[in-house]
Prior knowledge:
With 224 residues, the protein is α/β, with parallel strands linked by helices. The protein has a single domain, classed as Rossmann fold, CATH 3.40.50. The protein has a five-stranded parallel sheet, sandwiched between helices. The protein has a two-stranded antiparallel ribbon with strand order 4-5. Helix 9 links the parallel strand 6 and strand 7. Helix 3 crosses helix 4 and helix 4 packs across helix 7.
Amino acid sequence: MEKTVYILRRSLHQILEILFPSRCIGCGARSEMLCSNCVNNLKLTDRPTEDSIMALYDYRDPLIKKSVWELKYHHSPHLGRKFGELLYESFLEEIELIKILSKGLPIYIIPIPISKNKYQKRGYNQSEVIAKGFCNTKRDNTFELKTKVLYKKNNTIPQARLTNRNKRLQNIKDAFYIKDAKEIKGRTIIVIDDVTTTGGTMLEAIKVLKKSGAKKVVGFAVAH
């Protein structure tokens, strides 16, 4: 049922795109939803993150905030694919270092999961869409997308509703679980998410993956 709903939504979007071509949400130019000129003007983040996490853009940038909102709540998965490509292009140097650690094996790309309830409501996981864009930029065996490894429980409050750092960290504690630890044992992993604020979500996912036997885990986020 979930897959059918997603296919119908995607087909409807494709039809609308033919009838009414996209305009950039930044400048209104008739092109893709985020044109290259607006991308070049996005503010890169200069705020520190945790050692194992890297973020690309400053979430305080109004266009970044608007883009993430469109991606998550207005069914704009193509924005996610665009952000995945930008993550890859911007973190090439870091990716090359991670490849050394993987010793020739594919680097596992794991998107931060969302709950089943949220998936049913949204029709897709925005972090998974970003991860697909990231992987598709490099069409060889460098990356392997893994969406059936890390799962999220349904009983957490959305992090965006919590403004207190300690409450955010407590809310996400033990929120993730892994079904098959053997699949990631000894592997090198990049976890991908749309936004990292306190770093709690990403750190919790990294902790669970390491505890299950992953050799090296780092996090890439679109914004911070």
